[in-house]
Amino acid sequence: MTLTVQPISSAEHLAFVQAQRAVSFLQTPAWGSVKTEWRSESLGWYDGRRLVGAGLVLHRPVPRLERYTLAYLPEGPVIDWTGELDAWLDPLAAYLKAGGAFAIRLGPPVRTDTWCAARVKEGIADPGIERLTDLPSQQVDPVGARVTSQLRDAGWLPQSPEDGFGAGHPQYNFVLPLVGRTEEDLLKGMNQLWRRNIKRAAKEGVEVTVGDVTVDEGLKAFHDLYVHTAERDHFTPRPLRYFETMVAAMNGEDPERLRLYLARHQGDLVAATIMVRVGAQAWYSYGASSTEKREVRGSNACQWAMIRDSLEAGCDVYNLRGITPTLDAADPHVGLIQFKVGTGGQAVRYVGEWDLPLRPMVYRAFDVYMRRRESMRRRKVGVA
């Protein structure tokens, strides 16, 4: 098979995405409009005249070397990862280098390992276990191992850091499989605390509504609560304008793409979440909660509403997004995985993000710049 890579229109790209069952929302044409600080383009892989693959490429210039860009394909591209990757990635590299890219960064949507909730819970309880990778994987994906090997042999460099979070997207996710399951099955799979919290929210009269994201009041209410959450939990919130842009771009492409969930108790907004859906996948994207009235469990009510709606929409999986691989009870990050483990889902490790330097000298300068920037960031937040 001889493949060629060339630009395609947003309409062609969207049509290809809509024909697939599993595509990340980060690989939709609309995502390029969300990331306004990047220049975006849609590329297609052709076998003769037939479009067989597609990818959203985000271009970011190098500081002081604006004619060169990092070409980034988050959680993509959408190609056949089961075969020989050279046939797919060599023409991509040739096209992007000719266009001025100094390196390519991509994140294959390919799993390597899976751990069930019960196994993760056992690991957290075991003082001898500190990381997910200390536990035997219950499902090793041979495709993931093969992709990792082929990328390394072709000169690609792994970028996933020790904690699973880096400049790009997390290597570890927590997912809830939905295929062949009912609401009753999903509730039975949750731990006792989650079931109790869902019942508590219902008993307390928490009402979850799907807000109209095109109405400013709903999005503003979410954002106000999100900023409150950021202040409490010590992270930097995105501005309201970012969410306005996200809503306009994503729902302009598909009016059912992004949904806003608002949980109220006696008129007070106690939790709010954003869910994104593409094809047969749904993602918990953003969440916020009030410090007051936490006992009414608005966050659990929002999650349960999103899970039920994903199931009703025929989704294969509900993705609770990133986790760190730590299972050390003394690590403050372990609370994140403990919360998500309660759903009864699975911890999943992906192949992670990889770089292919196309202009080694520029790439080395960029790497030094990024390392310095990360060091400054860690000092600023007090991380050793």
Automatic annotation (TrEMBL):
Task: Mention one GO biological process in which this protein takes part, according to its record.
Answer: peptidoglycan biosynthetic process
**Could you name the domain of life of the organism this protein comes from?**
Bacteria
Q: Name one GO molecular function term.
A: aminoacyltransferase activity
Q: Which residue ranges does UniProt annotate as crossing the membrane?
A: none
The UniProt keyword set, sorted, is: Acyltransferase, Cell shape, Cell wall biogenesis/degradation, Peptidoglycan synthesis, Transferase
- Quick check: keyword Cell wall biogenesis/degradation in the entry? yes
Q: Which residues form a coiled coil?
A: none
Q: Does the keyword Cell wall biogenesis/degradation apply?
A: yes
Q: Which InterPro entries match?
A: Acyl_CoA_acyltransferase, FEMABX, PG_Glycine_Bridge_Synth
Instruction: Cite a single Pfam family from the UniProt record.
Output: FemAB
Instruction: Give the record's family classification.
Output: Belongs to the FemABX family.
Name listed for the protein in its UniProt record: Peptidoglycan bridge formation glycyltransferase FemA/FemB family protein
Source organism of this protein record: Kribbella capetownensis
